[in-house]
Amino acid sequence: MIPGIGVLTQNTLWCFSQMKGAIETGVTEADIISTVEFNHTGELLATGDKGGRVVIFQREQESKNQVHRRGEYNVYSTFQSHEPEFDYLKSLEIEEKINKIRWLPQQNAAYFLLSTNDKTVKLWKVSERDKRPEGYNLKDEEGRLRDPATITTLRVPVLRPMDLMVEATPRRVFANAHTYHINSISVNSDYETYMSADDLRINLWNFEITNQSFNIVDIKPANMEELTEVITAAEFHPHHCNTFVYSSSKGTIRLCDMRASALCDRHTKFFEEPEDPSNRSFFSEIISSISDVKFSHSGRYIMTRDYLTVKVWDLNMENRPIETYQVHDYLRSKLCSLYENDCIFDKFECVWNGSDSVIMTGSYNNFFRMFDRNTKRDVTLEASRENSKPRAILKPRKVCVGGKRRKDEISVDSLDFSKKILHTAWHPSENIIAVAATNNLYIFQDKVN
Amino acid sequence: MLSKGLKRKREEEEEEKEALAVDAWWLDPSHPAVAQAPPAVASSSLFDLSVLKLHHSLRQSEPDLRHLVLVVNTLRRIQASMVPTASLPPVPSVPAAPGMADNLLASSDAALSASMASLLEDLSHIEGLSQAPQPLADEGPPGRPTGGAPPGLGALDLLGPATGCLLDDGLEGLFEDIDTSMYDSELWAPASEGLKPGPEDGPVKEQAPELDEAELDYLMDVLVGTQALERPPGPGR
């Protein structure tokens, strides 16, 4: 790893690397990307879409001839993870949209990932087959059984090379444990368990057991009329397998310790920032609703995303975040319109870079933002086809709030609110990012000097 | 893109929503937000919009719980701002009407639908009680005809003239033929709450296949407030 990689400095320039997905103007709903995730080494990049499909890209080996060009990501495997279902008992359609993908750390030659829709989590095994056994005794080459009476000699089957085939097989299906819509899954650091969270409950699973899960958080009130808050995201601590956090629609984060009790309804820590009275409005609660929560790689911090800001919290300080970054504060005066067109309910995700020094999140108009925690510098970039020439350097974008608009700036009223970057991912150790813009996946890398 | 806020007179008759513990910071002229910002009292259009969103959300076969909870909480804030917190007789809580919930709301969670139904009834009951005439909206969300009904009957208003701000095309189609001339503001006075929702029966029947005509009648009656506590549930509910 080159020193300086993973740090957003004055000298970091982001370049277009690749764009995946169709280029036609009409977008099929099913092709809209709903989740993006690198695996633990960054070798694989998975996307899930509204049609229930998972596409995995693999980074090609860097060739000696092209030292200055980092490996590109090519399609490795595509499979249908979830199908649309019909719940006959409740007369409901269950969407096949993939809400989240989480990779398991690699323990053998095969890759494992969890993918989930609103109701069912599945464990997929993705493995390569590049050899085929030939020379069976009881079967002929087409696989038909041979009459044992015709067999006069025995031979040992041999493995012969074949064209590489990547197979995805569902190894486990974890179903029927969620009444409400699953919004998060998180693999535990023990690699034996994981959790799934819906609007009101969080369940703990063992990978080996599909017919049973433990309920560890339940915020459903006895009387549903008293319901005022839902769970919006949850994640395990990266190192402490007994610790997890979950966020709520009221802008709070609770940290729970599973050693304290079986049902973690009582939190160990409670993170909430007091409301700023000067910013109070009828939409205060909606914009405080946390759409994503992520532990830093170090496990010392958590990052939360609400509608207008990204916040970094120190686990040791509950009463306020240590850092707050404005993503698109110019929208604060437009909240009424954004409420009207439902954009105010959009759920943006946020990610850390490998060294926890830079954080990234998406915005509208296909803009996404990066904040360097050390230098306090930030940059706004755009995922657009116009900037899609190979190794083209991305130019920082700026939104003009009022007054005279400069040549390269875009005014708030010209922003396209249908082009939203909700899902992004950052390579675990390098400056490579994947940005989902509706049905296209953009991969950007920093310029190698 | 932005709908303008409305200036309204303080209501003279007041009722207090039971168990709403929202402090009335917007009424405190010394509060920095109130002093600096435009009047923070919600316009009726914002209230109507929120009720619309609530309806729309509840109409989904499986409501998005987060969206629902956020809209309901926002609606409570808006409603609390429309009803000043002077000392008022508490509104008796309206028991959930299970029949209405079953018929109207296809939510997978019966308890949720019952609770939301009771919330809707609460809201409609408050609307019915808040009878003081209000000045007309100068301008509502785009597409809304001017001269809409006063906010005191905002809930009925939402079922009245078609509005461009409706989120759901289906809803728009539902109401576009409704003759709303009888709901012009001149006609609405505290005494005339006995108006029947008759004109809306016909077109609504044709365009709302997902609701029984009788159920829609009942919903409208409840929202108008004329029948909320008087009419027993119909047969079979």
Automatic annotation (TrEMBL), chain A:
GO cellular component: protein phosphatase type 2A complex
PROSITE patterns reported in the protein's UniProt record: PR55_1 (PS01024), PR55_2 (PS01025)
The keyword Repeat appears for this protein: yes
Domain of life: Eukaryota
Family under the similarity heading: Belongs to the phosphatase 2A regulatory subunit B family.
Protein name: Serine/threonine-protein phosphatase 2A 55 kDa regulatory subunit B
GO MF term set: protein phosphatase regulator activity
Name of the gene: PPP2R2B
Protein keywords: Repeat, WD repeat
UniProtKB/TrEMBL annotation, chain B:
Pfam family for this entry, one: SERTA
GO biological process terms on file: negative regulation of cell growth; positive regulation of transcription by RNA polymerase II
Transmembrane segments: none
Any one of the GO CC terms: sarcoplasm
Limits of the SERTA domain: 39-86
Region (Disordered): 132-155
Name this polypeptide is given: SERTA domain containing 1
Species name: Rhinolophus ferrumequinum
Taxonomic path: Eukaryota, Metazoa, Chordata, Craniata, Vertebrata
